[in-house]
Design brief:
alpha+beta, two-stranded antiparallel sheet, 17% strand, globular, 4 helices, 6 strands
Amino acid sequence: MAQRAGWRCEYCLIHEEDAGFPHQVDHILSRKHGGSTSFENLAYACVICNRYKGSDVASIEPQTGEAIRIFDPRRDRWTDHFRIHGAVIEPNSKIASATVLLLRMNAPERILERGLLQILGRYPRR
C-alpha cells in the first residue's frame, strides 16, 4: 500500500519521511459503516489526515448545509479535485472543499510545514 501511494499521504501528499510519525492505513469506508479491509478500501494516510477523517465519509458544506462526500483515493484523482498554490491545497470541486475543511488541510501549522518542505524540495509545488 505504501508503495502504491509513493509513501505519501493520499490526502495531503506529505511524504512519510517528513511526517514525524509513520503513516497509517485508513479505511476509506470505515468498518463501522460496513467497509471491508480489502486493498480497494484502504488508503495510506498521515496521522493528521487519518485522525481528522476518522470514520467520516462526508462533510457539511457550511454555506448550504449540503452533505458532500469527501475525496476517495481509490475512486478520485487528486489532481482532478485539488491543486497546490504556494503551500496551500486549493480545492477545485465540492468534494475537495469538503475534504479540505474536514481534514483541516490548510490549518496554519500545516501550511507552514508544507512551505518549509517545499523549500527543502520535499513537497510538490504544483
